[in-house]
Amino acid sequence: MNFDLESVSSDMLKIAAAFYLIKVLVRVFYANTIRATLLRVAPENRFMTPNQAWLVVIPFFNLYWNFQIAGRISDTLTNEFFDRKIAEEENPGRRTGMFFAWTSLLATVPFPPFIIITLSLLSVVYFINYWVKINNLRNLLVEHDRFRQEKQDEL
């Protein structure tokens, strides 16, 4: 199958550009969630700095960085929950994050189209699950901070 750029209509190029911009915007919001989660964690418990979350926005590099985020966020949250004495699963979010990272990576391999589509759909599902999981864990940290503040105010 030959791909000729001249045969692509301007409407198709506009749609592709819009799709790409939406994809980048979603990555920015995702990176902000990761960053906000890391800001809730004590610096000594972090395995990455909050600003390193923005590296996930870089195209192609994010295929590697997704693995780093899954591992480092999990280790970071494990340390923070241990210090705060919050009962939470060990390595929170690591499994879902790794599934997302692997399906994203494998979706870029030149497999037959039906496999690429399947892996891409799985990647989107795992991405949403991972993002929701990290956001819920961030909310848990926020609620714990609020609870500690209320206890201090009572004293």
Descriptive report:
The protein has helices at residues 10-39, 61-84, 94-106, 113-154. The chain has one domain (5-154). It is elongated. It has four helices and no strands. The protein has 155 residues and is an all-alpha fold.
Which descriptors would you attach to this protein?
single chain, mainly alpha, 70% helix
Quick recap:
Helices cover 70% and strands 0% of the residues. The protein has 155 residues and is mainly alpha-helical.
SSE map:
Blueprint: H1 10-39, H2 61-84, H3 94-106, H4 113-154
Helix pairs in contact: 1-4, 2-3, 3-4
Global shape: elongated
Helix content: over 70%
Please describe the biggest sheet, giving its number of strands, its sense, and whether it closes into a barrel: none
Strand content: under 5%
> Element order, helices and strands?
HHHH
Number of helices: 4
Distance between the termini: 73 Å
Judged by helices, strands and strand pairing, the structural class is mainly alpha
Count the domains.
1
Strands, total number? 0
